[in-house]
Amino acid sequence: MRDHAIWAFIKQEVRLRTTAIVCALTPVLAGFFGCDHSHAELVDSGADAGQDSGTPDAGCMPAGSGGCFFQAGQEVWVDGLGGTDDAGACCCGTVDVPCQTLTYVMAAIGAGRTLGVTIHAYLSDGGADWPAPESWPISLYLGVKLEASEVYFNYPPSGDTSTAFTIYQWDSEDTSQVVLEGSEQVDGGYLHIGIPVDGGPWGSVNTIAPNFAYAIRNGWGVNAQPAHNPVPLQLSHLWIDGQINGISLGSGGALTLGPLPVHVGTWGQQANVAGNAGLVCSADPGFPSTISDVGANVLQIDGQVNGALFRQGCIATLLHAPSIGFQPDGGPSGCPSSIDGFGVTVENGEVHIGSIFEPATIQCQGIDGLDLAGGMLSFVGTIQNSNCVGAEVAAGLLNIEGTQFLRNFIGVWVNGTGMANITGAVTDVPVPTTFQCIDSSEGGPYPPLHACPDRTDNIPSAPSGAAVANTTAYSSIYLSEIGWPHWDGDAGLQAWRCTDKTYAACTCSGSDCPDGGAQRLPDHTDFAYLSTNFAPFGGFPNLGSLAPPMVCQ
């Protein structure tokens, strides 16, 4: 038995045995201590752990007249291999008489409307793959805490898919936080959902379809059930994935990630997982949802079409060094052959990613690192190796602060009705926003132009990209404390004004312009905008670079 399990058992033994003794002494003390003989109290007959016929024994909680119920705050043990949900005269849930399924335990918690139960799920043979005959999805509510260190929850190989865990209110008064976690110890084990045991196919094939459509859904109805309201949910020490979504958050939900890591996808093993999105948040008007992280280096996502997708009504604050995408390894476009699609997509809402002292990382995206289609998105960190655009804004406001754009075909592209503020970070030592390795002349990887599909009006029509491009009709871009690319040893700015989106006739202004008048937008492009744009630069204080020239490396 694991150390934390033994310690929890000792605490349970002391509490329940003390209560049983006191309750047996006198009705006065029994009333004072709130003894409830219709529910289970731990007793010990000195026999064989409750396995004989009808006699409660050591570690057995006898069933009351109303059946088996748990007590508020109780610790319940579930052995998916050796447990039993039907222990005869006993109620399962102790270390000696563990239950077998989470399905049964949650039904008992709901029947008694019991708050704050902690469930310890384990396998008595030390195995990992959960074999218990669960009824999927398993619904969690009433402030339950599920701890399952190094346990793998996978759907039976029947060819069907389902949701692993749904989290929602048991009734309208249920507002207690639900917790899913592996070990509470930093060096302890993870709780796994939809992840193959012992690496599974990771080492032999390049693609795996997670056997759950959704790993965790907070606030959606499933299996023809009516929709339920979400409750506060905390996830810590998890490794999960789903065919459709890893984590889904509905209207009015509150999700906390951490303090220990949460991995969604392959955890850097560079296999294409058939995941649509690692994290999805969608809320109805008037019922916003919130997402936050606590701890350090908490959220890591890879192997997804969309790393994180934020729709209407979502307020996300992920400030503790989140990471999305595989690490560059020198392969095609500098990345593994398995590559994601979009890092962070914001369709509406308010999203903050990264912070000055704990910057975010978005890397190796097959299309864009950041995509903003409405609302507000703030980013601090590194965006590298995007086949198309590091950060695109088609609508809404994009705030970039103290960020490194490295080996992206385009650094920032503002189009449609989008707006952007691109600045350095204001700290004791200013941190500029920098652009490096935009085209092959700098020695960096040069992604193919067809990596930007179905975009007939964008800057990729130019020979080899740009650090910043504004192709809107009227929106402004605020620039300050920018480290422009090191094209020719001069840190000066080249701002190119083009007559149309063919970029065939462009003129340069700034401190580092070539001679020769109008020409096609060159390979070495700091800033490009259209002559139809009435506010190409916005109100920034200067066009020069406050940072040294950025050499590609």
What does this structure look like?
- By secondary structure, this protein is mainly beta.
- It has a domain at 325-553.
- It is built from 3 helices and 39 strands.
- The chain has a 35-stranded mixed β-sheet that branches. Strands 1-3 form a two-stranded antiparallel ribbon. Strands 11-18 form a two-stranded parallel sheet.
- The longest helix has 23 residues, at 3-25.
- The radius of gyration is 28 Å and the shape is elongated.
- Residues 1-58, 201-210, 221-226, 440-450 and 539-546 have low confidence and may be disordered.
Compose a concise summary of this entry:
It is built from 3 helices and 39 strands.
Please state the CA-atom Rg, rounded to the nearest Å.
28 Å
Shape: elongated
How much of the sequence is in beta strands? 25-35%
| Number of β-strand runs | 39
Derived from helix and strand composition plus strand pairing, the structural class reads mainly beta
Q: Separation of termini?
A: 51 Å
Helix content: under 10%
Main sheet attributes: strand count, strand direction, barrel closure: 35 strands, mixed
Task: Report low-confidence residues grouped into runs of 5 or more.
Answer: 1-58, 201-210, 221-226, 440-450, 539-546
Q: Helical stretch count?
A: 3
Overall mean confidence score, pLDDT:
77
